[in-house]
Amino acid sequence: MNFLSHFYFDRQTSDPNIVLGTVLPDLVKNARKDWNLHPHKNEHLITGSFEQAILTGWKRHLIVDRHFHNSGFFIKHTNSIRTAIAPVLEHSPVRPSFLAHIALEIMLDSILLTEKLIDADLLYSNLRGSNRQALHNFLELNKIDDTPHFFKFFDQFLEANYLHSYRETHNIMFALNRICMRIWPDPMSETQVLQLSSILISYHENLQKCFMEIFDEIEKVLDN
């Protein structure tokens, strides 16, 4: 799941450090794709209360992602999206399965915003209110030595406020193309982008009818 979908499950928490933890795995991976943190291996070193709150959020992120990626909902919709977009990507280096996965996650974020089930400003407020020193400690305990690079990315993420852009369905394809451009030098032609945008806007409309299934399902898992 993406940032806003993860935040959905902790939108009512009063601890901004837990909120930070729920989205931190994605922040770390976006800051540098070769960074792989395994906090459970260093859990005995994480003793501060703020750092432990970050770890709590991190663990909740992993539970949510594990259930989501193994759910019938995820399998059904990524297969459907992949089937729909594969012909358009026939002469592109972009893998249809990769794009289907990311598209579904961004569409879910978008629907949460348009259905007013989540407040992106509240997520940003929690991230700004989290303990910066605790975050620095958490990263160093988990062998991230270039913390200035992370915090430069983190500050840019907070300043950009780009998650608000998911309210407009045409921005979904813009976000997907931007992600692909980080991996491939020339991922898609302008024609392919337009064709994919049309397919995904249509899928987005249909997804609005059933999207809550997966959120209700995961919420029950977290409550147990």
From TrEMBL:
The identity of this protein, by name, is Acyl carrier protein phosphodiesterase
Biological processes per GO annotation: fatty acid biosynthetic process
Matching InterPro entries, A to Z?
A: ACP_PD
Sample GO molecular function, one term: [acyl-carrier-protein] phosphodiesterase activity
Please name one Pfam family that this protein belongs to.
ACP_PD
User: Which species does the entry assign this protein to?
Assistant: Daejeonella lutea
